[in-house]
Amino acid sequence: MAVEPTTPKGLRTRGTILAAARQVFSEVGYVEARMSDVVNASGLSMGAVYRYFENKEDLFAQVIADLHELLFEASRSPVSLQEDPYAALFEANRGYLALYHENRDLMRAFVESTAMEPRFLTIWWNMRERHVDRFVAVVRRLGMTELDGIDARTAAQAMASLVEQSAYTWFAHHALNDTEVSVEEAARLVTRAWHLTFFAPDNRPT
User: What is the reported pTM?
Assistant: First the structure.
C-alpha cells in the first residue's frame, strides 16, 4: 500500500516522482506511459516509486490534481466582477489559458484519459464544476439568477465549455491548426463571449 511522506526526504522523493511523471505523461500520453518510464525519468528505484504510488492511475490522478489546483488559482481574477466585469473576466480567462498553454501536452493526455477511465471522467467533471460554482456564486450575489429565462448556472457551464474546448483545440492540438492562436488572442475571444452572455445590457440585473 502506498504511503504519504512524513519527512523532508520523503517529500522531496515524492516531488521528484511527480515531476518525472508530468514529463512522461506529457511526452507519451496516459495510455502509452508506463511506471517503468517514470522510474527511468526520475532516476529512482522501482521500489521508491511504488512506495508512494500504487499504480499508474493513482500517479496520474495526483499529477492532474496538482495541475487543477494551479489552474484554479491562475483563473482567480484580481479584479472585482462587480467593479469591472470585462477586466475581471479577461484576467481570469488569461490566467487559465496561459497555464493551460504551458501544460498543453499534459492537458491533452488528461482529456484523452477521460475516454479510457471512468475515474478521470469524474475528476474532469468535478474540476470544471468547481470553476463554474465559483463564478455562479459571484453573479448570483450580483442579483443575476437567469439569462433570458435560462438558469445562470447553465449559461456558465456553456461558457466554461467554450473556454475548455477552445483551449483544447488551439493549444493541445496546435500542430493541426493552420493559424497559431496566442494566449492573448484566445483570452480576448472567449472573454468577449462571456461578457456578452452575462453583461450585455439586456442581461444585467435591474
Answer: 0.92
Residue 205, pLDDT > 70, answer: no
Q: What are phi and psi of 146, to 5 degrees?
A: -150, 160
Query: Closest by alpha carbon to 72, among 130, 10, 154?
Result: 130
What stretch(es) of the chain map to CATH 1.10.10.60?
8-54
The partner residues of 187 in beta bridges, in order of sequence, read none
Share in percent of the chain as helix, strand, coil (round to 5): 75, 0, 25
Answer whether CATH 1.10.357.10 is correct for domain 60-203. Answer: yes
- Distances 144 to 90, 147, 155, 172, 199 between C-alpha atoms, Å: 19, 8, 11, 33, 10
Residues of the chain with CATH 1.10.357.10: 60-203
CATH of domain 8-54: 1.10.10.60
